Amino acid sequence: MAIRERELRRYCKRLLRQLDIRPPLRVDELCHRLGLHRGKPIRLIPWELPAPGPFGVWISRTDEEHIFYQKETTRVHQDHIILHEVGHILADHEADARAEEEVLGMSGTDHPRGLITRRLHRTSYSEDYEREAELVATIIQEWAVVIDHTTARGCEDPSLDPLRSALGSRWGWR
After folding, report:
1. Conformational region of residue 26, where left means phi above 0, alpha means psi within -120 to 50, and beta covers everything else
2. Phi-psi label, residue 108: left if phi above 0, alpha if psi -120 to 50, beta otherwise
3. Which of 64, 86, 88, 106 is the most exposed place for a label (fewest CB within 10 A)?
4. Residue 174 located in a structural domain
């Protein structure tokens, strides 16, 4: 997992730069830009998911991604749930057949069968793919918090340019 973790960290940082994501992190904007980048929009759908059960569900269709996330929780928790599901997308995880019927039954929306190509949901982190998705969510949130707190605001002192240059890559941007 250590090698995969390093690869995921590099990949996430490179992708955030490509998508021109800047702090403060807006998860909806990240999903919008990621959808454009991949050529497949990501629809974020708040839903009252039954408890106990998954907090989030990812369904991949041929033409778009759907991320259902728990409506009845805090915004911070919702962002983490969405980022976890984005982690499944970024890590290119395979389908979990258990989720399709559950989501089709709980969503009350018409999702044509046969168009759903991938779907994953989580209730625990015992599987490697769940830990990997959680790692992606954590990497993105950690990056956003660190960058937001370390990015200089309003200081245009040119004497600090060498310091910014030296530390810029350590902060994840360069």
Report:
1. beta
2. left
3. 64
4. no
CB 116 within 8 A of CB 102: no
pLDDT digits (tens, 9 = 90+) for 118-172: 444 444 445 788 888 898 888 888 888 776 555 555 556 777 777 766 665 544 5
| Cα–Cα nearest to 83, from 73, 69, 94 | 69
Global confidence as pTM: 0.72
Q: What angle do CA 24, 30, 68 make, to 5 degrees?
A: 115
Residue 44: which domain range? 2-148
For the chain, the maximum distance between any two Cα atoms, rounded to a whole number of angstroms, is: 61
CA distance 116 to 32: 20
Q: Which two tokens stand for residue 36?
A: 């454009």
For residue 52, whether the previous peptide bond is cis, meaning omega lies within 30 degrees of 0, is: yes
Residue 167 included in any domain: no
Reply yes or no on whether the pLDDT at 71 is more than 90: yes
The token duo for 86 is 């984005």
Tokens of 2: 């250590």
